[in-house]
Design a protein that fits this description.
The protein has 7 helices and 9 strands. It is α/β, with parallel strands linked by helices. Helix 1 packs across helix 7 and helix 4 packs parallel to helix 5. It starts with 13 loop residues before the first strand and ends in a 7-residue tail after the last strand.
């Protein structure tokens, strides 16, 4: 009878984390490594990735830093080849890179529209395209693999001036449900995480004055989620028995209504 390493429950797993240079990605990469996974760190900021990889290594984990832009499909394909060569076949993808840039639609901030679509949708699909073949192979060998996509509560609800962002996250959530129908038969579990307000760098990119004021007030007066809370959710999903697939987790700060 096989036994589970309770101290390192993700030993023998190979995890890939996009958007790993900060926020949810950084926290999740550290936690997965602490629980035994070999972790590939993907993001644009090479300096931040290097610091994270060094910290993981100092704490006894294994991490590979790969600077890459998720909007570059060819670069992600190259990253996938490097992961397999240096860490082994990826069996967990935390598909997390994203950006939030709200603005009134009448301002016609087409640059911000395009950036959100390119990263939140295009980058998501580029990572899926690059790593799904490995997930399928790993599932055939190990009996299970995991694709975990980061969406948002914005996929379900209505937020004024967030139309493009919420639309991009609705894509993530619904695509995840459809991917589960396709990949579940191959023993690849697909889950989507929909957090409410989390304290990360995501808010720092917001330029719309109304959204900035709302976020600043909320962050200063309410207890919002920490990145570590979402990291725990990802680890929880990956540690389930192979027969168990939580297809969607909505994680809200206690105060937040919608």
């Amino acid at each position: 009878m096989s036994t589970v390493n309770t101290q390192l429950p993700l030993a023998n797993r190979v995890a890939v984390v996009t958007g790993a240079s900060s926020g949810l990605g950084e926290a999740t990469a550290e936690l997965l490594a602490a629980r035994g996974a070999k972790v590939a760190l993907l993001a644009r900021r090479a300096d931040r990735l290097g610091e994270l990889a060094a910290r993981i290594g100092k704490n006894g984990g294994t991490a590979l830093a790969i600077p890459v832009d998720v909007t570059d499909a060819a670069a992600l394909e190259a990253a996938a080849s490097r992961v397999e060569a240096e860490l082994g076949t990826a069996d967990l993808l935390f598909n997390n890179a994203g950006v939030m840039l709200p603005s009134p639609i009448t301002e016609l901030r087409t640059d911000q529209w395009r950036r959100q679509i390119d990263i939140n949708i295009g980058g998501l699909m580029n990572a899926i395209g690059a790593f799904t073949p490995q997930l399928v192979r790993a599932a055939a060998e190990k009996g299970v693999a995991d694709l975990v996509n980061t969406s948002s509560i914005a996929a379900q609800n209505i937020f004024e001036n967030f139309a493009v962002y919420t639309g991009s996250k609705a894509f993530v959530s619904h695509a995840s449900r459809n991917l589960r129908a396709e990949l579940g038969a191959k023993n690849v579990r697909v889950a989507v995480i929909e957090p409410g307000i989390v304290k990360t760098e995501l808010q720092a990119h917001v330029t719309d004055p109304g959204a900035v004021a709302w976020l600043d007030e909320t962050l200063s007066t309410q207890e919002v989620l920490e990145a570590a809370d979402v990291a725990e959710a990802v680890a929880f999903l990956a540690q389930q028995p192979a027969r168990v697939n939580f297809q969607q987790l909505t994680i809200m700060p206690t105060f937040q209504r919608n």
